[in-house]
Amino acid sequence: MPDKVAFQGINGANSEIAIFQHYNGQKVKTEPLSELNELFEALRTQKVTYALVPVENSSAGAVMGAYELLMDYDFRIQAEVILHVHHALMVVPGTKFEDIQGVQSHPQALAQCERYLQQNSWKPIRWYDTAGAAKDLAANKPANTAALATTKAAELYGLEVLAEQVEDIPFNYTRFLLLGIDDPNPGEYNKTSVVFATRNRPSALYDCLGEFASRGLNLTKIESRPRRNRPWEPIFFVDFEGHWQEPNCQDALTRLLQRASFVKMLGSYPAVKTDTVGI
Question: Of 22, 31, 44, 86, which alpha carbon lies 20 to 30 A from 51's?
Answer without folding.
Answer: 86
